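anyone seen this seq b4? input:
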Amino acid sequence: MDTILVVNAGSSSVKFQVFSIEGDGKLQRQIKGQMDGIGTRPRLRASGADGSPLADRAYPIEAVPDVPVAMGIAGDWLRNELRIIPIAVGHRVVHGGPDYDRPVLIDHGVVARLERLIALAPLHQPHNLATIRSVLAKFPTLPQVACFDTAFHRTHDAMADYYAIPHQLHAEGVRRYGFHGLSYEYIASTLPHVAPEVANGRVIVAHLGNGASMVALKDGRSVESTMGFTALDGLPMGTRPGQIDPGVVLYLISEKGMSAAAVQDFLYRDCGLKGLSGISNDMRELEASDDPRAILAIDYFLYRISLNAGMLAAALQGLDAFVFTAGIGEGSVRIRAGVAERLGWLGVALDPAENSRQARRISRSDSRVPVYVVPTDEELMIARHTLSLLSSRPSANPNHARVS
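predicted toks r here
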């Protein structure tokens, strides 16, 4: 059975999925797993396509000190115990910069170019690249494909792409990129089946999770996004502030004496819902709390979503549908209700019963703007891109890429 391994590496976890390639060229999810708690309480967990447990193993802290080791343990388990030897590996890479507007086969030159973007995605890019380098070192002939969170947004026109800065900086790559593109691409590909009547219209998609952003889709293409040069911009997130006056950064440096590295760490790790509430970056914990600061953090999150919805509706010159996705968007009845209430002026009318039962469409039948909840699947999108790129290679039988 030919399989594709999909890898999404973070700072303390490596998530992976295995897809089989069926005879008709379709992809079938076989395994979903992760090695988390890297550096603290390492644990390998995995389940089959039907949810049945395949592994649940704890490791000593010193046995899994970093992401490459975690990747090696997960890979050894797949190969040695399940006899799964993938014909290719697809990776989520957060930032593609100005060079990459589509998935690409990885070589050492690609890795070198992507390393230059680490400062633009310090929470993600180093770990994305660590797993790629690990596989390159162990299996240099195994095809690897980088799939970028920025690529889907490269359809923006100049008005959405530029900052009001000298052109030379734009030419060097200082521009608005947008992120969560793999999620948005999946939603755009799914809408024709979920809601064909609006799929080619003007749609706002809210990817609400620990990382959060929104996109304006027109004819299934990204025309505007809340995120920009880095994944700090736009909506408040679990630990990131979202939109902030650049003068705040200057103040932290000049008046608080913080270094650039300290400011970066502060903005990526200590702000957002965590900073506002002083309690947690987890929306579930905030919703369970009656602390006034937790309530403030939730209300601020809702307020900023509604403000950005207005901006995106302006970019689209109208609105035909609104879609929630990702962890909070798919899971929180309260957040969806709060957003819908604030978007009544756009024609949104929520059906509380449908919202509570987690229906696919959660707006009333008379809502001028229908509202949907569509689960995202970034891993499937990566597997599709990997298979497509592998199939388009001019030469070879993909089985020749097998490793043992």
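Confidence is low (pLDDT under 50) at residues 396-404. The first helix runs from residue 67 to 81. kinda curious what u guys think
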